[in-house]
Specification:
Helix 5 crosses helix 6 (110-122). The chain has one domain (13-207): Orthogonal Bundle (Tetracycline Repressor, domain 2). The longest helix is centred in the C-terminal third of the chain and has 28 residues, at 129-156. The chain contains 9 helices and no strands. It is mostly helical.
Amino acid sequence: MTANGTQNTRRTQAERVAESSRRLIDAAIALIAEQGFERTTAAEIGERAGYSRNMVRDRYGSKEAVLEILLETEIAERLLPTLRRERAGTGMDLVLGHVDDLLHGVWTAPENMRAMLVLSFEATAGPIASIRDWYAKLIPRFQAEMAENIALGQRDGSIRADLDAQREAETYVSYGIGLCFRWVMFREGFDLPAEITAWRARLARDYTAT
């Protein structure tokens, strides 16, 4: 019991480990979003999390191991499902739904989004093959999915029949990547939510069958 009569609950070792792991991952996300993975050191992650400079190496062995956890949990298990939620409806609903999911991700998890995007641009020349391979598989898969959604919309009558689904899917993905790149480059001076909203309006206008 404490001096004021309340119960003094002690955390278990597992709870302390879980908290420290969470703080280390959050610190890694913040640092990657700010300065990229290559410029981030294991010591910085430990210090940003409020621990010693050796915490990352003692816990995980290297900052690369932290990156693997970040990719597997924060991005693959949490962020990507938010950006690619299962949706029903017409092909147009699915096309616009992906834009809505992107906007939702930017609003609800901006640091996670920015870290994921910074990693994607670093992947083009970064030394960690796993990052390049991860994104090299993700982008074509998403583009193929978008082409299927456009083709579905052409079949159900919600999207113009004269569009080239494969070409539009490529343009869709490239434009989205361009917006994200500008957001990473101009952190304070680029209003990504506003640009995504305007992009959605253009898609709705230009794709809708008349």
